[in-house]
Amino acid sequence: MIDTKTAPYAALLLRVSLGILFLSHLSLKVFVFTVPGFVGFMGSLGLPPVVAYVTMALELIGGLMLITGFYARWAALPLAALMLGTIVSVHGHNGWLFTNKGGGWEFPAFWVVGLLAVALLGDGAFAIRRNRTA
């Protein structure tokens, strides 16, 4: 049974936490690896530079959408796809544990599950623009 009184706050907590994680992840790319460094890393994977810029834009815009609740349910889906992409292209070959060298796929997989939960739960409390539901 779902507690309908507290479920919106649970969705709020989940979506804001995930949004903050995306902004933190983006900050790592911008301030630690630097944008040129991240673009170079993506190139080392055989990906075109535009993928790096799309990734950073998704993390910024999607993270803000999650935090503010601006169509958060729909923002979660492309972000989940992005994280699946990191599993396939970056972390998957490093093994399960994220503490492995290069980071395994444990944490990105958990991120995907959280994002899918937001997509299924809905926007939650204090969303500035809710999705229409059936």
TrEMBL record:
Alphabetically sorted, this entry's keywords are: Cell membrane, Membrane, Transmembrane, Transmembrane helix
Question: Where does it primarily localize?
Answer: membrane
**Protein's name in the database:** LysR family transcriptional regulator
Would I find Cytoplasm among this entry's keywords? Answer: no
Q: Where are the transmembrane segments?
A: 12-38, 50-72, 79-97, 109-128
Q: Does the keyword Glycoprotein apply?
A: no
> What InterPro entries does the entry give?
DoxX, DoxX-like_oxidoreductase
- A GO cellular component entry from the record: plasma membrane
Coiled-coil ranges from the UniProt annotation: none
Write out the annotated subcellular location: Cell membrane
